[in-house]
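Final report, closing paragraph on structural work. Over the funding period we assembled a curated collection of sequence-structure pairs, and we close with a single example.
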Amino acid sequence: MTCKQCIPFTSRALPWLAPAVLMLVSLETPGEPLAPPVLEEVVVTASRVEERLLDSSASLTVLTSDELSRMMASGVADFLRDVPGLQVSDSGQAGLKRIRIRGEDSRRSAILVDSQELSDHSEVGTPLTIHPDMIGRIEVLRGSGSVLYGSKALSGVTNLMTLKGGTAPLQATVKGGYDGSTGGDSFFASVHGNLDGWSYRLAGAESDHGLRDTPDGPIENTAFENKGYYGFLEKTVGNHTLGLTWDRYESSSDIFVEESVRTTFPILDLALSTPQRDRERFALDYSWEPAAYSLDRVTVSGFTQDSLRNFLTDTATVFFQREIDTRSTLRSDGLLVQADWLPLGNHSLVSGLQYSDDAVRQARQVDTLSFTPFAITGTERIRDEASIRTLALFLQDRWSVSDRLTATVGARYYQIEGELDDTNRPGLTADSLDSDSHLIASAALSWALDTGNVVRANISEGYLYPSLMQLATGAYAGANFINPESDLTPETSINYELGWRLMGDQWTLDTALFYADSQDYIDHIFCTEADACLGANDKVYRNIGSSTAHGVELYLAWQSQDQRLRPYLNLTWMQRNNDFGTFDTWKTGIPSLAGRAGLMLEPGLAGIWSSLWADIYLRGESASQLQEPGSRGVVETTRSGWSTINAALGMNLGANVLLALEVQNLLDRRYRESTENLLAAGRNASVKLTWHIN
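Its predicted structure, as stored:
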């Protein structure tokens, strides 16, 4: 495969970046070094090294352990509903929610656990297959993170950081919760500590959720359950640290199919389910801080991960009845070697080599009972094995031009090879898939106007290599098959941002203006005679589209001097245009406005009420319309705007017990979020009790 999108980065970036450099340099004036800002939150996702949130040139949202402990979530995606520019997508699966960043499909964002990627090659993107109680911190980067995190990070990165060890020799945490929207319950227990330099944790969690309760009543096929297991052991000797992590997630989820889909001719009924969506990971991490010369830190991180998926489809049509049982195993192996350098006093350099190997083994059994000549009665067993290997080199230099001005440039070079290792499907032969090599880059500026007051600008390229499903194995969509295409061009993007962070004693402001241009979108279209598809209504993957998006993300908060009162606003305005080749549209299913506004109260009362807190908030989005190609022309779907009133409160019952309560949709509104298939839950109350034993 030729590198069709390798337009030299400098020719695209410098016309935009050079005026910004001149503007910031001309505004720079000599002076004393700035005092430390008010907010000292340290983040790692934006640059793969520790830095203050205020100094980051990326659009970044952090959810700390204290914030997560107050939040209710049946899955990790629920923690992320109010992150600017982010939407939750369920694809009819209440227990396997995905996330979308700035309107991009879920498969165009990278999901990490402890900075290691959760690989997935399905059509609808990567589910967040980790129990929410195992998470101690979340960092979300919006905008391309491909230079540092690879192919999947075209629209952003979500880094789910697990709980680590403790501070005393023996500690424990027990947690129980009830979810009123599903009648579900959850339980979590952990033993952890730090003993003679050994940091450790052993934890388990289990959740069981029933049907989602809505103003229209319970929704069929929305029950789900999951279990999580986690182990962590780490030892530090001098300036060497070695850690071992194991985590396992087991889940099953029913899938809701809308009545209009289930009964559209020639379909009489359609039932889907995911009885197994499991994942297990073993990771080994080593770091060395030599504290000598210009080498600041060396990190070696390796992992192996197995993802098991069982997907069932039962279709009844006027022509035939068909049952499809798909079972697949995705083995993902990864290795990262990273060196952090301090070559000069005003430079910090991150360099790395990253290798990944994804291998899918998939088996389908298709049982067909035909009533007409349009299909053949019998059993078909289909077997596929395919793999993708990626080798990448990356480099990022952060240059402190002065006390106020910082410039960051980075680049990543990919070498990717794919192979259809084995197949017994008619018309396909085991062979090498098209390989690709690609170079992308990024650049950013950050200028401190004053203490706690920073403006930033960045430009970054994104790159997404086709998935194994698109290249080699294909996928069933109801009764029809989507055929793979081995000659697909990788999807690419270029992202521009201007941002401003203000963090003072009373005011906090974090806003970004963004523009993204994406090319060579991969989607599926109906086959033509030249495609030689087996079914008359089958589809095939093609590069058919492009997209542009622009918008503003805003977080604004003020707190009283006694810190007891804090009104806040989280708002995203976004417009998106999709070009399908045959037509283009601004009706892309994304609401123009979405967000949350609320009032946080911490009254500081006497006695047991001293830790009481309350949060009353409004969440909502404007109406949205979606136009996309269908079998009989353009299909349009309209979603109404909505808003809900919600309340959360909690308090410490003693030094180590936290009680949190949340009531959502107080007015019992009937609504459906723009990127979700399921009707939202009606009025419901959830509760969580956490007990820390020191």
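The domain at 9-693 is CATH 2.40.170.20 (Maltoporin; Chain A). The CA atoms of residues 326 and 364 lie 4 Å apart. We thank the funder for supporting this effort.
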